[in-house]
Amino acid sequence: MQRYKSRRLYSASDIVNFLGCEHLTYLDLIDLDTPLPRTEDDEHTKLIQAKGHGHEASYVAHLIDTGATFIDIAKTVGNLEARAAETIKAMRDGVHTIYQATFLNDQFVGHADFLRRVDLPSNLGDYSYEVLDTKLAKTTRVKFLIQLAFYSSMLEEVQDIEPRFMHVILGDHTEKSFRYQDFSRYFTTLRQRFANRVTGDVALTYPDPCEKCSQCKWSGLCADKREKDDHLSRVANITNLQVKRLQDAGIKTLEDLGNKPEGTKVAKVASETLEKLRHQASLQFKARMSGERQLEILPLDPEGKRGFARLPQPNAGDLFFDMEGNPLEDGGLEYLFGVYFFEGGAPQFKAFWAHSRSEEKLAFEEFMDFVAGWLMRNPKAYIYHYAAYEVTALKKLMSLHGTREAEVDDLLRKGKLIDLYKVVKEGVRVSEPRYSIKNIEHFYMEARAGEVQNAGASIVFYEQWKDSRDPKLLKEIENYNLDDVRSTYELREWLVRLRPNLVKWATPLGEEPADTQREVGTLTEVEQRLAAYRQKLLDPLPEDRDGWTETHKLQELTYQLLDFHRRTAKPEWWAMFARMEMSAEELMEDGESIGGLVMDAQFPPQPVKQSNLFTYLYPEQETKLKSDDSCVRADTGETLMLVRVDPDARRVELKYSIKKGALPDQLSIGPGKPISTDALKEAIFRFADSLLHADGRYAGLISLLKLEPPQIAGHSVCDEIIDTNQVALPQIINAIANLDSSYIFVQGPPGSGKTYTGSHVIVDLMKRGFRIGISSNSHKVINNLLIAVEKVAKDKKFNFVGVKKSTKEKTESHINGEFIQDVFTNDDVVSALSDGAKLVAGTAWLFANPELDQMLDFLFIDEAGQVALANLVAMSTSAKNIVLLGDQMQLGQPTQGIHPGRSGESSLEYLLNDLATIPPERGIFLKTTFRMHPDICRFISDAVYDGRLEAEVDNANQRLVLKGANALNIKPTGIHYLAIDHDACSQQSEEEAALVKLLFAELLQQEYTDKDGTLHPITAKNILVLSPYNMQVNLLKQALPVDARIGTVDKLQGQEAEAVIISMTTSSGEYLPRFIEFLYSKNRLNVAISRAKCVAFLIANPALMSIRCSTPQDMAMVNTLCWVKEFN
């Protein structure tokens, strides 16, 4: 931000700062006229700046060495206008790389690191430019993309064409590219908000604490202001949202809150939460007035699980553990494991160092071996740490490096890792403004004396060591880590002294018998098996990855896939054990569980065969559990049968064996234990064996994993697979029938006839004598395709024999077909094939069966975007050719766990590698939607499908026929954004429900024409009402007629209606009930809008477009919502 001649000029950094903190912008504006006192940059900030300049200079030298034309605009003599003019001249001259390019207009000035010439025509000629920036970080951050979008928007003004991509060179010298249009609408919305803020009088803001504070030049000024005002943000553990609600209730300061009496009520703040905050504020105020730190023991947990009840009895062999990590490394590097312990009564400290990813693995193994050996000698000992970092890091390292998993599992299963932060948080309340160990140690330890005083300083010292290799720097870090682990020990001792006598010591979860304990460092059977394959698949690979062939990459991927299912199951087990410690209230917020079940007196337990059927009611909450899901008691992990979930009545029916007795009147349930994946694992090992033997048995699968173009007899791999100017279906049938031990992907956007196409192809292949397999993640999806196959066969008067492996006790999995028979064992399927069946269907477990290995000519995998790559490999061992049906731009299936490389991706994520549509020479894109009006299709096509999706000609006839004036200004076609202001809505909004009700009633007064031009009245069946949340769905069901079609986006995927109403519900980013991707998912928005034939209405609070994004992925998702508003 600067004054230049007679105007203010703003830069990319100003907009980045505005996104992070609007008060920063307020102070910057004041500082232009009245200089304010600044906080000096700390050593960490200076280090980053210096290394950033060096990284940029290195890249400049690289560009000059390439010999391409290059110009440095910074060397231009003159003012900003001269540099901007020189930039434009260089662009018109076609210089390949323009360094320090300057852009200038009436309000903004930009200095892009680099402009790079690309072959896209513009007003400059047969070329244009794209922006490239160098950044020291190893991963792309939101602020980088804001800066790139800023420069790209100014570049567009000059060359009169939107750049396709923008690029960043990261600290490890890798180049990452991003589609400009995936971020431009979010940036435009942000820039407009910024422009509104800085135009006219300076708008007053307040210095609420935020993530930006630690890097801000005004941080000292803001802290002084909050202290002077006695601001509520100074209350420990208070959130900005709670501050807002307290202020709305007239409670303005820490003193106000601390002096409130017990029992005070505040709207939209739970009584228990308010009492915690009031008590906390009272201690801090008392400490301020008395000058003495305050401490109070909290009431004991009646369940005997929390607070001091977490402490086991101290043991002479107890370990105290802390880690140091460097986030500047790609993926983060855990570079120091520190342990404090006593031997012979004397304190000892042991450090395990790592300076690379390979050394991190070795340090982790050495640390875990030390711990395992120590605990064998000291079986009653525990490992103490403070907060969740250490446990999270151990889980990550275990999964990332595929080693010492049994040892980490032992620690978790036996409860050996004791988090003292939980003890502090649940057991005491102190007058400190934060509950970090640095604050808590004021009560039990002398002040620290080392040069390294915090984690940020340790990173600075570590980065300095990387440059200088001065061992004194590592020693300072080690001393800091020693202080941390010694503090952890002293904290445990202090808590033991505070512990009330009535509290029992935490009981151990059980030890293994001595004869079952393994020797330290030995591998489990699973790990031994993996080690053998690692030796064969990975060890022979060249050290320099730049020299790897596609076969080398396939070997690495195959090894990574071998352990996919075990890595995936780990978080499910961990989550189950974590839920055992959760309260009913916490489980209600979990999203995966149903918390607070209470026995329904209206329906007492009833015997059903060998079980009792128990009926419960539950409070309103979001849950993913549904009828017939596997579930467990949250407190014990005991398996239950979830017969029915009725979200409307909020009623659950559970089956429980009569032999086991009765269930309690109150309980909570969570998702079931991971199911066995042994069959899938073994199939992947078969594939690995074949790869090692190079026997070519799975040529089609290898072709897919190598990302080779489909091999089609009589077709050149360089040509487009089908001629899009000709009728598609005959060409698609011919291409698939001529697959030559290969694969093909048929991408079906909404309404494009994917199932229609797939069913016709399958029937044609069976008529040619081929044996077909059909699979997917769910029986519902499989049955949907099978029903279509039977219909096509009947229409063509073609009889065939097929079998579907269903689940006998789950009738909803049965097909009950005319040609396709339900069977219930793998043997039944194998027998049917032997007897001449042409079609078999089932889930991945069926096709991973070794008896089906290479038995099929074609395997069709429907909704392949929801199928994990590992499952694709397992099931594809059954077939010579693989046909993937689906669309990765619709709803996918999230993968659990941390997976190396690309082994955790879905089949289509892997195949398309971030592309939105399959290139025409690599697959088939069904380009015509038979559902959406062109006005809707245009948005979906541009925003989601690279502009390749077209509406069928007759779709233009689909439109509302409006009768007279309408209060909401309804339009007959297209997408309409209806803005609505509300506050404090998370998963339910009465304001939006009222607007939906009004809109629904208005629509019922209208008519519509179908694609044939026939006029119809609009009824409830012609309107689809969607929301992301079950709680809003339930509210809408109360507000709308009983025959209204209402549901979540996920539940109603595949349905359609003339009019679609989407209620986004949430007020703003502050009120998001779960991860940002749930509400803003581009895929979910695509599915929701594309249900509409004529018109779609998106109801949303404008504040949803102003959310602060923390990742590029988040920014891209919010961009789509901003695009809807712009399209409107």
Question: How would you characterize the overall build of this protein?
Answer:
This protein has 1128 residues and is α/β, with parallel strands linked by helices. The chain folds into seven domains: 2-199, no CATH class; 230-292, DNA polymerase, domain 1 (Orthogonal Bundle); 307-498, Ribonuclease H-like superfamily/Ribonuclease H (Nucleotidyltransferase, domain 5, 2-Layer Sandwich), CATH 3.30.420; 525-573, no CATH class; 582-671, Elongation Factor Tu (Ef-tu), domain 3 (Beta Barrel); 677-797 and 837-892 and 901-926, Rossmann fold, CATH 3.40.50.300; 934-1127, P-loop containing nucleotide triphosphate hydrolases (Rossmann fold). Helix content is 39%, strand content 18%. The chain is built from 36 helices and 40 strands. The strands form nine sheets. It has an eight-stranded parallel β-sheet with strand order 26-25-27-24-28-29-23-30, with helices on both faces. The protein has a six-stranded mixed β-sheet with strand order 3-4-5-6-7-8, with helices on both faces. It has a six-stranded antiparallel barrel with strand order 16-18-21-20-19-22. Strand 35 and strand 36 (1015-1017) form a beta hairpin. Helix 16 (455-468) packs antiparallel against helix 17 (471-498) and helix 25 crosses helix 26. The protein is globular, with a radius of gyration of 32 Å. The model is unreliable at 510-516 (pLDDT under 50).
